[in-house]
């Protein structure tokens, strides 16, 4: 199974980076920044208006710019692909 990556934006520097998804649910996305012993785990929670997911790691605010409906569609697609791969 390959690891899923998403692109986040660091708001202070407006820099984008690809990060590994640890778990993805509609109410919380857990990501891993970095690799190895220096990696940092972070939770992204939906914003109040539901247009993005936001969190902070090491004092920096990070944003995943997809709304709840888009994330829900992504989760359903991943679950659908997994179920289809098990059928024979």
Structure description:
This protein is an alpha+beta fold and 88 residues long. Helix content is 22%, strand content 45%. It has one helix and six strands. It has one helix at residues 68-86; strands at residues 5-10, 15-25, 28-33, 40-46, 53-57, 60-64. A six-stranded antiparallel beta barrel has the order 1-2-3-4-5-6. Strand 2 (15-25) and strand 3 (28-33) form a beta hairpin. The two termini are 18 Å apart.
In short, what is this structure?
The chain has 88 residues and is of the alpha+beta class.
Produce the secondary structure layout.
Layout: E1 5-10, E2 15-25, E3 28-33, E4 40-46, E5 53-57, E6 60-64, H1 68-86
Antiparallel strand pairs: 1-2, 1-6, 2-3, 3-4, 4-5, 5-6
Average pLDDT taken over every residue: 89
- How many structural domains can be distinguished in the coordinates? 1
- The helix/strand series, from N terminus to C terminus, equals EEEEEEH
Structural class: alpha+beta
Distance between the amino and carboxyl termini: 18 Å
Rough outline: globular
Number of helices: 1
- Share of β-strand residues: over 45%
Q: What are the segments in which pLDDT stays under 50 over at least 5 consecutive residues?
A: none
Helix content: 10-25%
Profile the largest sheet.
6 strands, antiparallel, barrel
Please provide the count of β strands.
6
Strand order of the largest sheet: 1-2-3-4-5-6
Rg, nearest Å: 14 Å
């Amino acid at each position: 199974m390959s690891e899923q990556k998403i692109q986040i934006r660091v708001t202070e520097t407006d820099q984008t980076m690809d990060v590994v998804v640890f778990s993805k649910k509609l109410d919380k996305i857990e990501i891993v920044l970095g690799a190895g012993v220096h990696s940092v785990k972070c939770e992204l929670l939906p914003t109040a208006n539901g247009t993005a997911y936001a969190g902070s790691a090491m004092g920096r605010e990070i944003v995943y710019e997809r709304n709840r409906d888009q994330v829900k569609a992504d989760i359903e697609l991943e679950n659908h692909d997994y179920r289809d791969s098990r059928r024979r």
